[in-house]
């Protein structure tokens, strides 16, 4: 999954994992930053980005060992790179950038902003959804990542994602 906050990535990740009877890698940053917020009332800072990236990759690598079909990832390092650039004046730690660009997935699902924005302790850009969506889409295009735009209802998104995953699976047999 790939896209701005509050666009249904977690919901769809769970649905896809259930559909394929597989595991899904949640967004490591969410738990990491929620704990930081709960303990310190602080949001993400630049020094959090590398620990978040490392935690995400460890989580994905561990979960990948538990499946031989589909691993659904709620996020990835390229998403962390996009957020870094959006929040920290266009900058991204060179180590994070290197691995964000080196890391690759068979397919990205770019989640559209046609879902209602839902507030929580960590979400903070309800008025910047279009700009953030464009930043995510531009990153996929710039780095030549294969992606499908998901929009519409939860059911429509799930059906489209399943269609494309099934197609990938058929082509790997």
UniProtKB/TrEMBL annotation:
Keyword match Lipid biosynthesis: no
Q: Which GO terms describe its molecular function?
A: ribosylnicotinamide kinase activity
Q: What EC numbers are recorded for this enzyme? A: 2.7.1.22
Record bears the keyword Kinase: yes
Q: Which residues form the NadR/Ttd14 AAA domain?
A: 1-157
Top EC category: transferase
Q: Which UniProt keywords apply?
A: Kinase, Transferase
Top-level taxon of origin: Bacteria
Question: What Pfam families does this protein's entry cite?
Answer: AAA_28
What is the recorded name of this protein? Ribosylnicotinamide kinase
